């Protein structure tokens, strides 16, 4: 299975090996390379930037848990955790910033979104609940994902300028939308994800304004929202 590609056409993902658990791979246009693991049996690569840095998740020695990794072309580096037992990396930008999710302590199931800045893993917090996870980051460092709220409802978020913003707070009161999870953001600030539109499960595209006046404007004037119909 392939999960990521960069502008050079290099592809990353996961593949069965001759014997044992599947491993992360890099396909360079000619050959599929086994990236190995962090000492455990299994690994999977989810993203690659234009410098060839690769991120993913691997079992550590003893196969007791999974940790986020950064592969720099030679070595797979363990990014650690936010204090808990495991972590997973989801995306990397061209500055080498990495996002994902990590358990925050050894004694609970709480997970928080993180941003790895090249030196340490930073906790991005939540929207008031116990869980958050980051799905994507653009080259400006804007992060998107999802988090549960104080009412234990999943909401999509945008993280920028050290602030996690509930995207639903940008909607007009009677928009009919509940934005559940943001899965991607590009360098123009457009955000995609999924949610519910009057109870119907739908994909969404949010685009920073200005846009044509016929498109629904969000409450703070910062985005327009389009519904993507199923089928």
Walk me through the structure.
The chain contains no helices and 20 strands. By secondary structure, it is mainly beta. The chain is globular, with a radius of gyration of 18 Å.
Spatial extent as radius of gyration: 18 Å
H-E order: EEEEEEEEEEEEEEEEEEEE
- Which overall shape is indicated by the principal axes computed on the Cα atoms? globular
Beta-strand percent range: over 45%
Strand order of the largest sheet: 1-2-3-4
Helix content: under 10%
Major sheet characteristics: 4 strands, antiparallel
Low-pLDDT segments, ≥5 res: 211-222
Figure out the total of helices.
Answer: 0
> Would you count the extended β strands for me?
20
Mean model confidence by pLDDT: 92
* SSE class: mainly beta
Give a brief outline of the structure.
By secondary structure, the protein is mainly beta.
List the defining traits of the structure above:
0% helix; four-stranded antiparallel β-sheet; 231 residues; single chain
Task: Give a topology summary.
Elements: E1 2-5, E2 11-15, E3 23-27, E4 32-34, E5 39-48, E6 54-60, E7 66-71, E8 76-78, E9 87-92, E10 98-103, E11 111-116, E12 121-123, E13 128-137, E14 143-149, E15 154-160, E16 163-166, E17 177-185, E18 191-197, E19 200-208, E20 223-228
Antiparallel strand pairs: 1-2, 2-3, 3-4, 5-6, 6-7, 7-8, 9-10, 10-11, 11-12, 13-14, 14-15, 15-16, 17-18, 18-19, 19-20
């Amino acid at each position: 299975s392939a999960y990521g590609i960069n502008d050079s056409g290099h592809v990353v993902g996961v593949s069965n090996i001759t014997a044992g658990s599947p491993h992360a791979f890099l396909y360079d246009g000619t050959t599929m390379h086994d990236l190995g693991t962090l000492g455990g049996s299994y690994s999977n690569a989810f993203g690659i930037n234009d410098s060839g840095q690769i991120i993913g998740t691997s079992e550590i020695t003893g196969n007791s848990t999974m940790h986020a990794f950064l592969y720099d072309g030679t070595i797979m580096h363990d990014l650690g955790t936010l204090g808990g037992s495991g972590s997973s990396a989801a995306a990397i930008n061209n500055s080498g910033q990495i996002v994902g999710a990590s358990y925050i302590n050894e004694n609970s199931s709480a997970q928080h979104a993180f941003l790895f800045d090249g030196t340490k893993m930073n906790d991005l917090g939540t929207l008031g609940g116990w869980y958050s996870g980051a799905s994507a980051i653009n080259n400006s460092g804007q992060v998107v994902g999802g988090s549960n709220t104080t009412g234990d409802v999943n909401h999509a978020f945008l993280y920028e300028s050290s602030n996690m913003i509930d995207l639903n707070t940008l909607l007009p009161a009677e928009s009919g939308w509940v934005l559940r999870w943001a899965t991607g953001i590009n360098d123009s600030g457009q955000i995609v994800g999924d949610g519910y539109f009057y109870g119907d499960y739908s994909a969404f595209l949010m685009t920073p304004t200005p846009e044509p006046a016929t498109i629904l404007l969000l409450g703070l004037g910062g985005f327009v929202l389009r519904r993507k119909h199923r089928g």
